[in-house]
């Protein structure tokens, strides 16, 4: 998995990488990419076709697209494009999804301080954007809730990347990771990302409510394929 951000202001930003690192003629020759805008309105152009992407909207670009360009539609509040790319063996069409088109799933309770809504953009289910292996979406915590994904779990068949955002300037998330019997934590601030290997739990608690973008890839695309960890087993 490859991840990054593009924040165009006065100039457009083309998606460019050191091709020696991936051994292909262009970045998406054998890869796919999912993009979620965590800033102001912008436009993503894929081989000359422009797609206006607003806040919390997603664009999937399939294998074989040679040129990707990021643009902000205003300098006062520039777009902030967060992207995750994975290898791809098949070409699926480029497709946009708004938050209203995403599949929402409300979870948690106020008693556990983890009321949240999961929005799935790129996934195998009905209405999802189809991909080779990338699964991508966002989770929004309701106001007054701080915990995500607790009890924790692992994905023994997939790795996952989190990008935390919508945190105040002085806010942090204590992100839990590591093997269930030997956990550690990272202090994460607004618009910082973490990579969770397949053997690691991934959970967190913030000093306020927040949003995070999640992306997974691995042996399957089944969102529900996870291995729960009992609270008594955490150390």
Automatic annotation (TrEMBL):
Class in the EC hierarchy, top level: isomerase
Required cofactor(s): Zn(2+)
Any Gene Ontology biological process: D-glucuronate catabolic process
Substrates-to-products reaction catalysed: 5-dehydro-4-deoxy-D-glucuronate = 3-deoxy-D-glycero-2,5-hexodiulosonate
A GO molecular function held by the record: metal ion binding
Keyword RNA-binding (UniProt): no
Entry EC number(s): 5.3.1.17
Family, similarity comment: Belongs to the KduI family.
Xref: NCBIfam families: PRK00924.1 (NF002091)
Name assigned to this protein: 5-dehydro-4-deoxy-D-glucuronate isomerase
């Amino acid at each position: 998995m490859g991840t990054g951000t593009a924040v165009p202001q006065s100039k457009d930003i083309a998606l460019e990488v050191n091709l020696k690192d991936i051994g292909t003629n262009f970045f998406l020759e054998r890869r796919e990419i999912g993009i979620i805008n965590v800033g102001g309105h912008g436009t993503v152009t894929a081989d000359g076709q422009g797609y206006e992407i607003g806040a919390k909207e997603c664009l999937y670009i399939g294998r074989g697209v040679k040129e990707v360009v990021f643009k902000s539609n205003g300098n006062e509040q520039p777009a902030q494009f967060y992207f995750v790319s994975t290898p791809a063996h098949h070409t699926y069409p480029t497709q946009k999804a708004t938050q209203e088109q995403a599949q929402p799933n409300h979870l948690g309770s106020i008693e556990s301080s983890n009321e949240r809504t999961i929005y799935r953009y790129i996934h195998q289910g009905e209405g999802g954007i189809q991909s080779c292996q990338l699964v991508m979406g966002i989770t929004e915590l309701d106001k007054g809730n701080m915990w995500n994904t607790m009890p924790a779990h692992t994905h023994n068949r997939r790795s996952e990347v989190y990008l935390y955002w919508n945190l105040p300037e002085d806010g942090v998330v204590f992100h839990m990771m590591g093997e269930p019997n030997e956990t550690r934590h990272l202090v994460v601030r607004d618009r910082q990302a973490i990579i969770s290997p397949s053997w690691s739990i991934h959970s967190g608690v913030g000093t306020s409510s927040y949003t995070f973008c999640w992306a997974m890839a691995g042996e399957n695309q089944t969102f529900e394929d996870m291995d729960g960890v009992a609270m008594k087993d955490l150390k």
